[in-house]
Amino acid sequence: MRASANLASTSVSVVPGGEIEIPVTVRNAGDTVEAYRFEVLGVPDEWATVEPASLTLYPAGSGTVVVTFRPPRSARVDAGDRRFGLRVVPSEYPDSALVEEGVLTVEPFFALAAQVQPPSRGGLRGARYRIDTDNLGNVTEPVGFAAAEGTDQVTFALPAEPVEVPNGTRAETRLRVRARRLLWWGEPKEYPFTVEVRPSDGRARALNATFIQRPVISAGLLKLIAALLALLLALAAIWFGLLRPQVKTAAREAVEAEKARQVAQGEAVPTTAPNPVPPAASPTAPGGGAPGGGTTDGGGVGGPAGGLGGEQFSVAVTFRTSPNGSAERSYTVPEGRTFLLTDFLVDNVQGDEGTLTVTANQVQVVTYALENFRNQDYHSVTPIRVPARAEVTLTVVCRRPGTPANAPRPTTCRESLYLNGVLTKAPED
């Protein structure tokens, strides 16, 4: 044997992050001067150092080196016993190296980090959270959980038994918070609460979080309901203030149009003059068409008229005209008669655009712009005399059909002329 070594202690302990020194006495058992180098076995190289790194001894001489252990404070360094060795290697005779062994005890340390995720969450009745527990120590840690504060307003669902958290790992524990009763309306309410994390060292860690309970009927929903009620009131006001009168007007116009159609087809109502005479002299004669074309119809009624020496007579002329075209329709006074025109009514039920002209015996009586009226009446103080075989003519130039109330836009213009007067015998030549 070329050397001998004695550890001052073969069993030592060290706290991670701290250090422990072990003196070692080395003796030269040979008969020549020898240099020795040292190696630490059984632990990571970064944990241990030897000072001095080498030692030269004379025969029978001895010296001391110090072995220092510095394990890091890390969860990766498990607590417990580790066997180590110090190898003494002679430079001249490396094959005669010797190893001295010992036991290094790494003491446990406890370090725990925990937090509630998310720290704040909302819901109508309850919410789910997660407790993240990180074991930063070097031993497996049993961790228990308990609700500490806030239990008067909310209830908690937590594991009943402790959770084992190995060192260097994270445990995710589910936490459910539930309000004791529903919040029907009003502003959201905040319920702060505290959960305790209880590791094995007995020192509880308090974790704070908040549950925000939202109302079933929120302020936004109340505003929406109020807005809908206001909209309904506005629609009711529009209906009763605007649309309903227009519907009534449209209905009245439809009735008037139907009456005009009945008159045009000969379904006339007699006048109220006394001693009515059968309407034998109530002829209706068709008129000519114009480039725009159109469909026409007409009809008349008659009866005796007092004061003008004839019989009361009325006739309707109604026809349709194509857009950007014109058409006319005439009433021809029958042979042997004279028509005394006292008044007439022109009707533009659709609100068409264009012009309307009334002539009597080739003399223009009036010209109207259609867009300026829906119906217009004309009264003559002195009756307009239309002799036998002469015509009362309605001429329409259609620029664009109008839009009746509550009805689709038609494809043609539609106008009517209602003539009223006295039909007398023509004077003898």
Describe this structure in words.
The chain is mainly beta and about 425 residues long. The protein folds into three domains: about 5-105, Immunoglobulin-like, CATH 2.60.40.10; about 110-215, Immunoglobulins (Immunoglobulin-like), CATH 2.60.40.10; about 260-425, Jelly Rolls (Sandwich), CATH 2.60.120. About 10% of the residues lie in helices and about 50% in strands. The protein is built from one helix and 27 strands. The chain has a five-stranded mixed beta sheet with strand order 2-9-8-4-6, with no helix packed on it. Strands 11-18-17-13-15 form a five-stranded mixed beta sheet, with no helix packed on it. The protein has a five-stranded antiparallel beta sheet with strand order 19-20-27-22-25, with helices on one face. The longest helix has about 45 residues, at about 220-265. The termini are far apart. Mean pLDDT is about 85; it is low at about 265-305. Keywords: Membrane, Transmembrane, Transmembrane helix.
